[in-house]
Amino acid sequence: MRTAFRGSLAGICGLLLVALAAPAGPFSTLSILRPYVPESPHKAYGVMLAGLGSDRAAPLHDWANKADRAILKPSRVALPFEFSEDLDAAETTGYLFSAEPGRRVQVELLRENDAEHSEVFVDLFRLDGNLPRYVSSTPATPPIGPAPSSRQISLNVMDDGDYIVRVQPSLEAQDGRYRLAIRLEPQLQFPVTGHGTRSIQSGFGASRDGGAREHHGVDIFAPRGTPVIAALDARVSRVDTTSLGGKVVWLQPLFGSTRLYYAHLDSQSVEPGQYVFAGETIGTVGNTGNARTTPPHLHFGVYIRNRGGPRDPYPFLAQTP
């Protein structure tokens, strides 16, 4: 049994109660009712309006339809994207863009005037085929005090795809001028101090051993002894010496499925189980292992568990042009 409020495609007036039936059995007739928890401040606001009665039905219906149109017919933009606009309750906008694995989506909505008590919802969706799937949103405005002047979303992209940012004021919002910025950034710090992507001289997928295998990383050339740093906050999961990689270090963040591989090091300055912050030295550039006949360089690999293994590190490191 389900109790529902019929709403828009965006589902802002979704289920208020969900009945979960216990597994069927000869003596099992128990149903457990659990309260509906909206997945975003936008949906929570819609549910709140739905509970106010029929006098808000017409404005709510119009507001919900605008929310739908913004994600079903968004405007495609190239990143970085920045736009200043005047928003009121009648305005809802959707912006469509593409992102590749290794990038971090940064969305910021900045209030440019004194509309301190205006609630503006900023939501991020990912297109699954032609269906927008909710991903993230800016936090709800605290019940006491003015609305924040800046609202932000940050998302690490792990799969190719199209994304939509929707901006919609509440029905009670004051007219205001806002600046929206959407940009892509690298997820990782560059792992060799004083160097950048121009120091990469052997890319991902290059042939190795006469075509017997592929290069599952990038080679970053730098003088021997150049500090190698943690590209993100992480735990040192392994410190070892192998015939292929020479002196190696593996890093694993506390959350997420990313694994970072550092090989051919001249020295290792961390221990297994140690926690390091992004920018902290974990070793130095060398040519140990099967790189003995090549100039000193760092082999840097990015692995995503449950997503096909090795990934091209370049998008994780490259700055947006």
Can you describe what's shown?
The chain folds into two domains: 17-21 and 30-186, Sandwich (Jelly Rolls); 197-317, Glucose Permease (Domain IIA). The chain has helices at 41-50, 57-72, 314-317; strands at residues 2-3, 17-21, 31-35, 75-76, 81-87, 93-99, 103-111, 120-128, 131-137, 150-156, 161-169, 176-186, 200-202, 207-208, 213-214, 218-221, 227-229, 234-242, 246-252, 258-268, 275-276, 281-285, 297-304, 309-311. The longest helix has 16 residues, at 57-72. The protein is elongated. It is mainly beta. A hairpin with a 4-residue loop joins strand 14 and strand 15 (213-214). The chain is built from three helices and 24 strands.
Overall mean confidence score, pLDDT: 83
Oligomer: single chain
- Beta-strand segment tally: 24
CATH topology of the largest domain: Jelly Rolls
State the low-pLDDT regions, or none. Answer: 1-28
Q: What's the N-to-C terminus distance?
A: 54 Å
Biggest β-sheet description: 10 strands, antiparallel
Return Rg in Å. Answer: 25 Å
**Number of discrete helical segments:** 3
Strand content: 35-45%
Order of helices and strands: EEEHHEEEEEEEEEEEEEEEEEEEEEH
The CATH class label of the largest domain is Mainly Beta
Look at the helices and sheets and give the structural class: mainly beta
Helix content: under 10%
The shape, in one word, is elongated
